[in-house]
Amino acid sequence: MMHFLSFFPYAVAAWLFVMGLYGVVTSRNFVHLIMCLAVLQSSTYVLLLSIGYRWGAVAPVFAGPPVVGTPAVDPVVQALMLTDIVVEATVVALLLALAVQLHKNTRTLNPDELEALEG
What's the CATH code, domain 2-54+72-109? Predict the structure, then answer.
């Protein structure tokens, strides 16, 4: 059972990545494409959590000096995940703002209906 549980988060991360990538490739609407990109990015959260998790470990917060040999979860991975969340929120907000501006100028969000840009 322990072997299955150690493999499961990686399988979930791969599934989220594949589903997000499929949505990005097949999307015919820019808002849908942006949301699929967010799903694709969320696979990195699951992957980072899977990498940083240790069986039987505690949070890396100690009231005093830690006892030698006390297993703790790696705080660097947690910091990377928080940074990843901030980056994703910023990218999604920027892309949605660009989609709103695109819709204002062209009255469509379908990439197939866009014409060539004129200088």
Answer: 1.10.287.3510
Q: Supply the Cα-derived Rg of the chain in whole angstroms.
A: 20
Distance CA 51, CA 45 (A): 10
Number of H helices, E strands in the chain: 3, 0
Q: Which of 25, 24, 41, 42 is nearest to 33 (CA)?
A: 24
Local confidence band at 3 (pLDDT 50, 70, 90 cut-offs)? low
Give the per-residue pLDDT at 5. 65
Cα 27 from Cα 7, distance rounded (Å): 30
Q: Dump pLDDT digits (tens) for 34-55.
A: 999 999 999 998 998 888 877 8
Q: Is 53 left (phi over 0), alpha (psi -120 to 50) or beta?
A: beta
Domain borders along the chain are 2-54+72-109
- Phi, psi (deg, nearest 5) at residue 57: -90, 160
Prediction pTM value: 0.81
